[in-house]
Amino acid sequence: MLFLLLACGADDIKHSKTDHWDVSLQRSTGSYGIVYIGDETKISDFKYDVSGTNISQQGSALSDHTTPFNMSGTVTVSEKNSDPIQFVISWNNQIESVTFQ
After folding, report:
1. Residue 50 in contact with residue 93, Cβ under 8 Å?
2. Residue 70 in contact with residue 36, Cβ under 8 Å?
3. Do you find a cis peptide bond into 68, omega within 30 degrees of 0?
4. Which of 6, 41, 51, 81 is least surrounded by CB atoms within 10 angstroms?
5. What is the four-CA torsion angle of 96, 55, 85, 59, rounded to 10 degrees?
6. Percentage helix, strand, coil, to 5, in the chain?
7. Which among 74, 48, 78, 73 is positioned nearest to 61, based on CA atoms?
8. 70-87 tens-digit pLDDT
9. Is 92 exposed, middle or buried (0-12, 13-18, 19+ CB in 10 A)?
10. In terms of Cα–Cα distance, which of 83, 71, 89, 80 is closest to 31?
11. CB of 32 within 8 A of CB of 16?
12. pLDDT at 95 (0 to 100)
């Protein structure tokens, strides 16, 4: 998938980090990646919500996972639409969020 992102205009990939997550979004394709960068060795009850103008998407990995852990997917966004897109991530009874402007 990394090759595909590089071939499709990697210059529009935006990254935002929290204490535990590195989230990337490429507006031109809607591709996103969520990568755990924290210190925990196990991820339990992982869930995420993606929201924005005309966007409402959820995902989860309810079984336990050892780290490294990542999730990827696609949302329907327009490169010309600059409205904020928010990712809310919950796991191990914690919640963090990132917003792309």
Report:
1. no
2. yes
3. yes
4. 41
5. 30
6. 10, 55, 40
7. 48
8. 999 998 765 566 789 999
9. middle
10. 71
11. no
12. 98
Q: Structure tokens of 72?
A: 């990827």
Residues 64 and 54: their CA atoms lie apart, in Å, by: 31
CB 43 within 8 A of CB 36: yes
- Give the pTM: 0.83
Which residue in this structure is represented by tokens 């949302």?
75
d(CA 23, CA 71): 10
Provide the phi-psi class of 91: left if phi over 0, else alpha when psi is between -120 and 50, else beta.
beta
Both tokens assigned to 35: 């990568």
Residue with tokens 């339990």: 44
Phi, psi angle pair for 4, to nearest 5°? -60, -40
Structure tokens given for 67: 């780290």
Closest CA to 33 of 80, 1, 62, 3: 1
